[in-house]
């Protein structure tokens, strides 16, 4: 074997082993790269999941805070509505007691007017004329019988109402009213009727004096009593706190 052939064989073997080494190195690097790539992808996915989980937890926490705030507002509104409703009811009740509200209910209607003196022997002319004192007595009798609201010819009778004589007319709450006097009272009809029609009661005396008297019990809630149009003013009393 000549020298050139030996050199060729040696170079060929070196090339073979070098090529084989390169191939093995490439495969090793490729496998390593694939493993590293998979690891990186998995790490990125894991990080992404963790980030979204954190965002979800933060969003859920904020949602719970907003829900708590909303529940508190609802409770506050509900409480305010209940308080407002309660205060409105009390205000309406107090206005009704003061006479500042129109009322409707059942009760009685009494109509009184001057008599003509017919059939009355030995009576003075003033006896069969309706006076302011007569109206006072009727109002007091109705109040004692439990009347909850009273009016005379459309004038609401309240604690500050005045009934005074002014010639041939009567002033009620400063307004002139004349005969016939229509007295409306809301309350238990049987109680009111029995109170004013009892024997020897004031209406009975008025009838004996020749005054025209008519009492009509109203069992249905149809009696309408207007509100008081005057102004409540206290000059000497103040609220005690």
Describe the protein.
A 5-stranded antiparallel beta sheet has the order 3-2-7-1-8. The protein has a 3-stranded antiparallel beta sheet with strand order 4-5-6, covered by helices on one side. It has 4 helices and 8 strands. By secondary structure, the protein is α+β, with helices and mostly antiparallel strands. The chain is rod-shaped. A hairpin with a 2-residue loop joins strand 5 and strand 6. The chain has helices at residues 3-98, 132-144, 189-197, 202-208; strands spanning 103-113, 149-152, 155-156, 163-166, 169-172, 175-177, 181-186, 212-225.
The biggest sheet, with number of strands, parallel, antiparallel or mixed sense and barrel status, is: 5 strands, antiparallel
Number of strands: 8
| Widest β-sheet, arrangement of strands | 3-2-7-1-8
Count, helices: 4
Provide the structure class.
alpha+beta
General form: rod-shaped
Q: Uncertain segments of ≥5 residues (pLDDT<50)?
A: none
Mean pLDDT: 78
Percentage of residues in DSSP E strands: 15-25%
Helices and strands, in order, run as HEHEEEEEEHHE
Question: What gap, in angstroms, lies between the N and C termini?
Answer: 135 Å
Q: Any idea what the radius of gyration is?
A: 52 Å
Helix content: 40-55%
